[in-house]
Amino acid sequence: MSKWRIWLLAALAAPLVGFGLITLAWVIDRPDGTSETVRNVVLAGRDVGQMNRAELAKVVADLDETLPTTPIRIVTKSFTLETTAGALGIKIDRDATVAAAIETGRGDHGPAAPARWFKSLFTQRAIPVSLDVDRAKADATIIALEGDRRTVPVEPTLSASKDGVKAVPGSTGRALDIVAILDQLPSGLDVVGRGIEIRSEPVATPPKLADATIEALASQANDATGSPLAVTFGESKLDIDATELRSGFSLDTTGAEPKLALDEKRVAEVLNAAIKPPANPTGVTFDIVNGVPTPKAGADAVVCCGPKAPAQIVGALLGGKKQVSVDSRTMTAAEGVEWASGLGVKEVIGEFTTKHPCCAPRVSNIHRISDMTRGVLIAPGETFSANGFVGKRTKEKGFVSAPVIENGKFSEDYGGGVSQWATTTFNAAFFAGLDIPDHKAHSIYISRYPFGREATLAYPSVDLKIHNNTPYGVVIWPTYTGTSITVQLWSTRFATGEQTGVKSSQSGCGSVTVTRKRTFVDGKTDTDTFKASYDCDPPEH
To answer: How far apart are the C-alpha atoms of 502 and 243, rounded to whole Å?
Structure first.
């Protein structure tokens, strides 16, 4: 073979031989099981080539411990915020970083892989660490750094009062776009510790809700309450001034779209005020035996309203209805007894006795009205009306005809003599310190009664009313003999009354003013006066 052919064959074979040698070396240099990374892998500036997983994980952990101090600057045209990776909740994703380092160079199986391996003997396979961001922590840090430079948007809302429901416009805020800032953070770092700079500018941040949406809801609230709401319960019906409900309106933004809300507590308040429920619906009375007061059950009573009533009214109003039927409920006699048992009826707080001759027809009427009112309970805040409770004195109710004073003259009528019960009860209330909003003295002074401190009755025009101005129940307890009547008022002591003065325009007649001083258990005192006007020239009887 000629020399030139030998040289030609050698020239042609040399690259193949060289590539074969490189391929052989590439095969020999593949990871042998003791290392999991290939040669010359550099992770964020740290050589991690030919390391096993534990060694690699330690390097990644070291880098992660260094990362939090990495400075980060957020630069705007007017200010710069300086923070750190740790403050923004930036950490190395250790698992992802380890996996990426191990994968580098291992999946290179193409025909050019040996050549790339040969090149790696002289160059690095550089890879970054993978990052993970706690966006909630980053949000909080950026907001805190921004401080007063950040203005939050104000959502439109409702202002509600009896005069009307009004929309309060919202306002636009201005702040850094935190989402845009976080999107600029790198997903990985080639060098841990090198500062990161992010450029951003504040942007307008409008409210989520539109003013027009809230204005429409305000109009809905005003329209719903522009006229009375007809409420029926059982066989009863009443109209509620719906404007009283307006202060209970608010904005409900919990759903996808804002809507009106109405406070059920406010509805219940307005409903109770409109209904004015009876103080003692089941008609509880008291019995007193051996000085021990015991409530006596009345009868079950239908009352307004059931527990669902406020919600039913809310549903009607928000649904644009002008009338609604609500649930009533039955208050049992047992419930009434339980309620009365907690009213503090335990002692005599006022007592008075008046005397009279025996056996006259009027005495029968004194006994009859005493029997009718014995054990009557005046609830806290309630006003007892003698005419309202007893009604017209009639034969059917057990009253007899007896002398009365009518229009300044003596005559006869059913119930004559009940004024002695009224005078005795009036005086018991006087000394108990109770309010007496309505009473009238006889037009002719009767000597068996205290001068100026007495009361008469005439149905329906002349009444005796006693208001329970205490937080306790007050029980009327009349007793009698053939020649006297005694009225005790049982409760818990709240005040005492005493007569501190009496003035009259003439001796024994004319205009009379009695002054009472009340002393309350808390030490406070007040005074009130009671008037009488006696005929100085009474007719003969």
So the answer is: 49
d(CA 521, CA 499) in angstroms, rounded, equals 18
CB 504 within 8 Å of CB 512:
yes
Asked whether the beta carbons of 492 and 347 are under 8 A apart, the reply is yes
Question: How many CA within 13 A on the CB side of residue 13?
Answer: 6
As a CATH number, domain 212-283+295-340 is 3.10.20.800
**CA 112, chain centre distance (Å):** 75
Instruction: Enumerate residue ranges in the chain where pLDDT < 70.
Output: 1-34, 106-122, 408, 541
Instruction: Dihedral sign for Cα 144, 146, 147, 151, please.
Output: negative
For tokens 């660490």, name the residue: 129
Q: How many C-beta atoms lie closer than 10 Å to residue 52's C-beta?
A: 14
Structure tokens at 466: 């006693």
Hunting for tokens 């501190």 — which residue is that?
A: 500
Over residues 158-168, the pLDDT tens digits come to: 999 999 999 99
Please report, for the chain, how many H helices and E strands are present, in that order: 13, 34
Q: If you write DSSP's letter for every residue of 125-174 in order, what string do you get?
A: EEEPEEEEE-HHHHHHHHHHHHGGG-B--B--EEEEETTEEEEE--B-EE
Peptide bond into 305 cis (omega under 30): yes
β-sheet bridge partners, residue 478: 487
- Compute CA distances 102 → 4, 106, 451, whole Å: 49, 7, 113
Tokens 């109405």, located at residue? 262
Spell out the domain ranges in the chain: 1-30, 33-154+169-203, 212-283+295-340, 342-534
Assessment of whether the complete model's pTM goes beyond 0.70: no
| Cβ proximity of 454 and 443 under 8 Å | no
Q: How far is it, in rounded angstroms, from Cα 528 to Cα 515? A: 6
